[in-house]
Structures are given as structure tokens and as C-alpha cells.
Design brief:
With 295 residues, the protein is mainly alpha-helical. The chain has two domains: 1-42, no CATH class; 54-121 and 166-283, no CATH class. It contains ten helices and two strands; from the N terminus they run ααββαααααααα. The two termini are 47 Å apart.
Length: 295
């Protein structure tokens, strides 16, 4: 049978033209079986731990080499230290605003390094955060996303503890160095995974920056925990008075000595390194979980 529209040869039982789509009839002709659709098989994605490709291996090796060079060359170490200062003060400011304290990060022109200026607590800012959390919880409940709803409720509970108690200031102090090691772990993940790609050499730069942030904070914490002279110099920084972050956290909030808190933070640095590696190694699993969570 030929198509009246395009002349293409068709099987006699065809309902429409296989070439131009012209419809011959709505139902199968008696004596001819109606054509059946072929089943479509969708191959299910197989999840597996990530491995390093050739580019990732080279980028990681370069990152390790650059990190070693940074610590061996004081000038490079000084330059990279301001990457830590920017992230450090940005962490103070970010958590300051989240917990109701208007904050501005800046460079300390008197003593060097950075400093973040805080203003009095604004419960209006805290109310905005509570409103956003309530709106997100309401959306999740309305859409029937039970797990997301309970996650938001848990976040709201943790936020309430820090926003409505004095431990909010403790968290702001912690999240200077805390943001440094968090960003270090994320940068390490970018290096190992190649995501998100920017330019051909970005993986090595991410890796070097991440390793520097993690290693620099680990060395800093261990020196505070083990070197009496370094501890004394830290207490006299910024004009003296033992008001630096770790001194205030240990003395005013956790009621432990600065060396004890510094030692705990050194373990936290190591944990951030492990977290970055696990984030890369099992990326397929947590990405799949997130897709399913928001599907």
C-alpha cells in the first residue's frame, strides 16, 4: 500500500504513514491485527563510588605540590593567608547576620589580619529567618514532602537554640575558623570531582586552596595546643587581653582552656578533610538522594 500524500510504501495493516505521518484510518482493518507498540526499556542508573580520572590525579598531585610550596615559601604563605582572612571574616559576618547581629567584615589596619564589626542584636532579623523557615515548612507540608518538613523543623529547632540564647555569639566566634575548614573541604571536593568546571587548571587551584585552608588551620590549632610561647603570643594579639576567638570560646562559653579547645578543633580539621574525601567518593549516592528528595 502506498501513501496518498508522499507515495511511501507501507504495510497493508498500517494506520498511518511511517514517513510523513498521514493518517489512513482510525481503527485496524478487519483481518489485520492492530500494530502494537514496542516496549521501551529504561536502563536504571547504577550507583558506584567515584574514582579519580587521569586529569583528577594530575590536578591532585599539582595541588599537593603547590600546598607544600606555599608552606616552604613565606611570601606565598603570606599571600594565601589573606584567602583565609577573607573567608574567616566572611564566616563571622554571615553567621552574625543569620543570628541577628548586623556585621561587617574588614581588614584590621592597626594590627593586621581581619576583624568583623558587630552591632547590637536585632530580633527583626531573627524574625525574618523564622518567617522563611515557617514558609519553607508550610510549603513542604502542603506538597506532602514529609521528610523535607521534618528536616526544616529540625533546622528551626537548632536555629532557635543559637538565636535565642547566648550560645549564638559562641557560634559566630567559632564560624570564623569553622567557615575556613568548611570551604577547604568543599574546595577539595571540587578538585577531586572536577565539578563545577571553570577552566582547565581550576581543579589544581581548588585543591591547593582547600588543602592550604585545612592544613593551615590544623597547624594553627596544634601550635596553640602544644606551644606555650605561641599560645602567649596569641593571647597578646590585637592589643592583648586574651579576646581572640579561641580564648573567648574556651573561657566564656565552654569553660575549658584554650589549648584543650584548640586540640578539639584540630580533630575537627581532620574531620573536615575526611568529609571532603567522602563527599567526593560517594557523590553519586548523595546526589541521587537529593534528586529523590526533591523529585
Amino acid at each position: 500500500m502506498k501513501c496518498d500524500k508522499c507515495g511511501y510504501d507501507q504495510p497493508d495493516e498500517a494506520l498511518s504513514c511511517n514517513l510523513c505521518g498521514a493518517v489512513f484510518r482510525k481503527e485496524a482493518t478487519p483481518g489485520y491485527p492492530a500494530p502494537t507498540e514496542q516496549p521501551v526499556f529504561i536502563e536504571e542508573e547504577v550507583l558506584a563510588p567515584s574514582g579519580l580520572d587521569r586529569e583528577g590525579l594530575i590536578s591532585t598531585a599539582i595541588a599537593v605540590g603547590i600546598t607544600g610550596l606555599i608552606f616552604l615559601w613565606p611570601f606565598l604563605s603570606y599571600i594565601f593567608s589573606y584567602l583565609g582572612v577573607i573567608i574567616h571574616e566572611g564566616g563571622h559576618a554571615l553567621f552574625g547576620w543569620l543570628l541577628g547581629y548586623p556585621s561587617i567584615p574588614s581588614i584590621d589596619l592597626n594590627f593586621g589580619g581581619g576583624v568583623t564589626l558587630w552591632w547590637s542584636k536585632s530580633y527583626f532579623l531573627v524574625g525574618i529567618v523564622f518567617f522563611l523557615l515557617a514558609a519553607a515548612a508550610g510549603w513542604a507540608y502542603w506538597r506532602g514532602r514529609v521528610l523535607i518538613f521534618f528536616i526544616i523543623v529540625a533546622i528551626a529547632g537548632v536555629y532557635s537554640f543559637f538565636a535565642l540564647t547566648g550560645y549564638g555569639e559562641c557560634l559566630i566566634l567559632l564560624m570564623g575558623h569553622g567557615t575556613e575548614i568548611f570551604v577547604g573541604a568543599v574546595f577539595l571536593y571540587f578538585c577531586l570531582s572536577g565539578s563545577p568546571p571553570v577552566v582547565s587548571y581550576d581543579r589544581a587551584l581548588y585543591g591547593a586552596s582547600g588543602l592550604f585552608l585545612l592544613t593551615n588551620n590544623f597547624v594553627f590549632a596544634m601550635r596553640l595546643a602544644t606551644d606555650v610561647n605561641y599560645l602567649a603570643d596569641y593571647g597578646e594579639a590585637k592589643g592583648g587581653g586574651n579576646w581572640m576567638d579561641f580564648d573567648r570560646i574556651g573561657r566564656d562559653y565552654l569553660h575549658v582552656t584554650t589549648p584543650h579547645f584548640a586540640l578539639a578543633f584540630a580533630f575537627l580539621c581532620f574531620g573536615a578533610l575526611v568529609a571532603g574525601l567522602l563527599l567526593w567518593r560517594y557523590a553519586a549516592y548523595w546526589r541521587d538522594w537529593l534528586r529523590r528528595l526533591f523529585a
